[in-house]
Amino acid sequence: MEKWLKPLAVFATIVMFIxxxxxxxxTKTDSGLGCGNDWPLCNGKWxxxxxxxxxxxxxxxxxxxxxxxxxxxxSVLCWRVYRGIREVRNLALFGLFFIVLESILGAxxxxxxxxxxxxxxxxxxxxxAFTGVFLLTGFVLQRHKMExxxxxxxxxxxxxxxxxxxxxxxxxxxxxxxVRHTGSSxxxxxxxxxxxxxxxxxxxxxxxxxxxRMGALLFLILLVANAIYAAKHFRKSRRDLYGAxxxxxxxxxxxxxxxxxxxxxxxxxxxxLLHSMIITILFGVxxxxxxxxxxxxxxxxLRK
Length: 304
Prior knowledge:
Order of helices and strands: HHHHHHHHHH
Low-confidence stretches: none
Number of strands: 0
Mean pLDDT: 88
Largest sheet: none
């Protein structure tokens, strides 16, 4: 049974990533009510009308349903194969919980009108569902490499730091989703300046957009500092954290510049989708560091 887990793990992660992209596509094309206020039906039908909005929304629902089935199968198999391993149990429950919660929130957003603050949570919960599957996939793929990667213990200060970084990242993600749902994406029509100013008038949509920019800039600085620390302390003893910190550094630069391209391209669909894709992977990598930072080498590894 275990030999099927690796391809299934990769497939489950890809499907969840497609769910994230499909959800972003719904938001960016304003197709959230493409099926009206009906759920699970689409405008009272099982087969939707052939309009772009209804097809996008219904396809998103279909992909989410398929993803739910795949994640359930993947989680149950992991639970059976790695019975007794707390990490597997917790990650399986984490992913399942948030994919159910994300589905419920998505359905409620269709049936009942929601505020921008609540709608922004939908992307956040989807991101957590993806992250749970992503981390469980990481366990399956790296299980036999873990001993060689974990050669030293991580200081408590760094563990606290990386958890703070993950929480901060989630806040930046939520703020970005809030920018979209409040229609503030083009409040600053140029980049990196805002309406030709380094610091614009901080009110209304401009204030929301500028707050997201400043949050992203600080996020970049924090990940640069994280990569420097990891390169200094973990290059040999913790290749998992060292490698993940470098990947996160590359991704955060791509994220910042893709955010700029979103503005310069006037919200072109491809640039906005790319922006969502990058932050999805980046958040998963940061959460991977959170998980790995708590792991310790085995006693015989320490004696070497």
